[in-house]
Structure prediction request, 159 residues.
Amino acid sequence: MWESFSIDRQRIPTENIYPVGDGGPALTNVRDAHRRIDPATLFVNRGQIQLTETGLELGRTEAGPVTVGYERLDFGNGVKRISTKCHTWAGLTQPTLVELRLDSPDGPLVATLNIPPSDQPREIVQDLKSPISGLHDLYLINIRDTNNQWAFFEWFNFE
Prediction:
């Protein structure tokens, strides 16, 4: 069985099942990290997540960090920065911090976004700690240790 935000729980179609070691079909759901990525296309989430018509809200509660993951992003020959349209609640006195990690929620840290309080989303461009190339999963983790901190993303892409 499988399910997602856009697919109700159902049997996995036979064209997506293959023997171990076969390698399976070519990866058709690889996403180009250079193009804008819709935050609603996440494949894993843990914690307080809210999808809206315009984007993704990563909450933060006393239960711990909130994590979302994006599967199979192709960074090509290399990217050096992230561009995103995002914001957090204007009433906060400090930014919300969102870590970007590769391949697992505790994988290599590639950036920490400082998302400033604002009434409206705005574009932020930030350099990565080091260039990324090739095919990776990407995790966004809201790490601010104060209850009810959230970050809202309309889109992001890499340059």
About this structure: The chain has one domain: 30-158. The chain has no helices and eleven strands.
